[in-house]
Amino acid sequence: MPAAKRRRDNAEAPVKGSKAPTAKKSKVNGNISAPAPAPAPAPAPTPTPTPAARGRGRPRRADAVPSRRRGAPALIINTRPTEKLDIFVFGAGEFGELGLGNKKHEGKRPTNVKKPQLNHLLAAEKVGVECSPGGLGRETNWEGDDDDDDDDDDDAGLDPQESTPAEVDFSSLDQKPNFVQVAATNSASFALTDGGDVYGWGTFRGADGILGFTPDVQIQVKPVKVAGLEKITYLAPGSDHMLALDRDGKVFTWGSGGQSQLARKCVTRQGGPKASLNPLVCGRFTKARHAVKIAAGAYTGFYIDNRGKVWSWGLNNYSQTGHSDLAGKTNAVISIPTLVRAFREHTITDIDGGAHHSLACNSDGELFTFGRVDGHQVGLKEDAFTEENTVFDEAGKPRILKLPTVVPDIRASFVASSSDTSIAISPEGNGYSWGFSENFQTGQATRKDVEVPRLIESDDISGKQLVWAGVGGQYGITMGLPNIFWSFSVALNSSSASSSRPCRLPFIAKLPDVRNTAGSLPPRWLDLNPRDFLRLSGGSFLFFAHAFEHHGDILSSN
Questions:
Q1: Alpha carbons 168 and 198: distance in angstroms, whole number
Q2: pLDDT beyond 70 at 76
Q3: For residue 526, what are the CA distances in angstroms to 363, 430, 534, 556?
Q4: Contact (Cβ atoms closer than 8 angstroms) between residue 435 and residue 450
Q5: Which of 324, 321, 293 is nearest to 306 (CA)?
Q6: How confident is the model at residue 149, as a pLDDT?
Q7: Higher per-residue confidence, 131 vs 86
Q8: What is the mean pLDDT of residues 443-453?
Q9: What are the Cα distances from residue 74, in Å, to 178, 193, 194, 245, 288?
Q10: Where are the CATH 2.130.10.30 domain residues in the chain?
């Protein structure tokens, strides 16, 4: 059994069949519960149609329902990302989750990657599709390697179809949608379209095994449209539950809900024991107060409202929701979306959750962590734990950080977490990681726990501006802007060809960092002193002012 799995198994798992305590609709231990939905107003009387004004052609019926013209373009509410990014992976990779294929590349094996390594199969100049390892939504039958010519030293023994990124099979659909986001739970995957529809495949699991994908389908093999979701703008996955945010700021939940991670009833008279598999709104949302961002931990849910305040729910045995209620109690849950009062003086901009801990950052760049402590999940030194903010065990060791606490000496604009490991990205694009590292999932080339946030470094990400990160149980992923070189004046084979606007030179890559800041370009650009670039592409010669479109270090070549 992998070490990371053992760590999760040794954690205090939710008790099967335990009944969640009901949160009161009044202030409880400093937390404000979300108000119950107001009764629906009576329908307004239908006004008497007025005669249509007579004009040329046939009069239009006043009570006719306007419809979209045949052939009219579909409604677009989400924009597909256009910035191509380099993808860096690290961690165990024993189940193909790193997407490095099944063979060595440049002498590097596709498993046990100690430091961030560029995924050569998903480099920025090659990326054309997105896929999510796990529930792959495509055929992955493999009976082992039958190629006698393969070098056994180069073969990692992985299923080549599971370990190599490939497009999901959408042949079962009449028309392939335009996808803008993907998300995956432990056993299911989902994809969001530009029109706000959600497609999914796989299954949800509960305490007793497979729960199902829908009330009528146990395992969904091929992608299918998820009923009940329209005009969705973002998806957030937990271990076995999903959150979706729609254009009006409402949050939908579905999946396994045994630890109150759906913030609603999981069994109903009409839907029976599988009612939780139908997406439904989990609270009351209005124009005055609605969700603008969502996130999920393993058994928790979060949303940031339009005022920058955090609402959370789900399993709370380690105060991983940000509430100190019943911290340390096995059956502790927050059953409905509840305002986190610890953040009342802050404008939170990002939040994420792991198995038993969570982290967030505010508009000032402060990084907050809270939850389980014994595996360095919160990234704090021992002197940060006090009687006021911490629950100690019988031996006097810190066990639960029950209040969100600032992590010193680090600024963050993006956070990511899973299981017992976390990553934060600074506004400058530097990545920091900490926590459980048995399978190198911190990217720090160590199997020991990383106590406090440490800069993620490797040859492949040197000088890169990181913009995104994600953490799995035994691996991690970061994404960064590729190094793109630009020139204002180019001379090819000694023949001058000046340009008044920057032109892209994609054949230049991995240039050393010389930190040269001379020049006078606008803030968007960082420029270099005039210098010669010789024989970088065949017989080409480059002269005069050169610049990189880059938000961090300036890259150049002597």
A1: 15
A2: yes
A3: 26, 18, 21, 11
A4: yes
A5: 293
A6: 46
A7: 86
A8: 95
A9: 11, 11, 9, 20, 29
A10: 86-480
Specify the pLDDT at position 104.
58
Length in residues, the chain = 558
- Find, among 539, 533, 522, 525, the residue nearest to 556 by Cα: 533
CA atoms of 194 and 179, how far apart (whole Å): 6
Residue 502 to residue 507: CA distance in whole angstroms: 15
At residue 372, does pLDDT exceed 50?
yes
Given this model, what pLDDT does residue 488 score? 38
- Return d(Cα 58, Cα 524) in angstroms, integer: 57
CB atoms within 10 A of CB 88: 26
The CATH fold assigned to 86-480 is: Methylamine Dehydrogenase; Chain H (2.130.10)
Q: Closest Cα partner for 508 from 490, 529, 526?
A: 490
CA distances from 214 to 141, 197, 205, 279, 327 (A): 25, 16, 12, 10, 34
pLDDT digits (tens, 9 = 90+) for 545-558: 343 433 333 333 33
Backbone phi, then psi, for 531, in 5-degree steps? Answer: -160, 165
**For position 551, what pLDDT does the model report?**
38
**Which pLDDT belongs to residue 154?**
64
Q: Are 461 and 88 in contact (CB under 8 A)?
A: yes
Identity of residue 50: T
CA 382/CA 133 separation, integer angstroms: 37
**Of 435, 466, 440, which Cα lies nearest the Cα of 369?**
435
* pLDDT of 277 above 80: yes
As a whole number of angstroms, the distance between CA 231 and CA 193 comes to 9
Backbone angles phi, psi at 276, to 5 degrees: -70, -15
Dump the DSSP string for 225-257: EPTT--SEEEEEE-SSEEEEEETTS-EEEEE--
Residues with Cβ within 8 Å of 377's Cβ and at least 6 positions away in sequence, in order, are: 354, 356, 357, 369, 371, 420, 421, 422, 435, 436
Q: How many CB atoms lie within 10 A of CB 349?
A: 18
Residues 6+ apart with CB under 8 A from 189: 132, 134, 135, 136, 137, 182, 183, 200, 201, 202
Which residue is associated with the tokens 């008044």? 500
What is the average pLDDT across 322-346? 93
Tokens of 319: 């105060």
Q: What is the pLDDT of residues 231-258, one digit of tens each?
A: 999 999 999 999 999 999 999 999 999 9
Longest dimension (CA), the chain: 89
